[in-house]
Design goal:
Blueprint (H helix, E strand, L loop, with lengths): L9 H12 L9 H4 L3 E4 L2 E3 L11 H10 L5 E9 L3 E10 L2 E8 L7 H27 L9 E6 L6 E3 L14 H15 L2
Parallel strand pairs: 5-6
Antiparallel strand pairs: 1-2, 2-3, 3-4, 4-5, 6-7
Length: 193
Amino acid sequence: MPKRKPKKSAGVATARATLAKEGLILPPIPADLSGNFAERGPWNFATAAAPQDSPYMFEDYVQRVSSQAGNDFVALQHDGHGINSYGLHYVLVWGPLRLFLQLGYGGVYMNVEATKIHINKCFKLAHELVDAVTTAREAGRLSTSDPLVIAASDFRSWHRFDHGESIDINVGRTYDLPPILLQQALNWVKAQG
């Protein structure tokens, strides 16, 4: 019997339209998770297995979620406080991949056009990374028992890239970290086979 493609939910279309209005692309929502990807509130989308709390307290969230065993999930939400501490958070826990991005968006002092270019670059790299992880999983080169953790934030100096060993990255500005870390992770996954 042929495999049935998972049904896409209205949440994917709503999230895509919400981001498109801002000139942003949708980050990867794997097909097997898209069926229950739903809108939880304004600029807050997630699958049912996603934690209810915000990833805004980034390091604590990454430490807690990356070490939990459980169901795969994806979450995308805008959260923050004050006049410049707002971010677009994207979290994907999917098989061996634990991807956490905190990208500055919506602060009063942020350059809107530069921020959109930056976010779209990060989301494009995330799409490439998910494709590479898919290929590596299908070839048996990545396993769920040995997760690949990638975490980067625009407004926190803390980051993580871990697959058996932690990799330290020195960058001039925290803002430069997410695309550099995503590219390094992509290169690492492609080099696995």
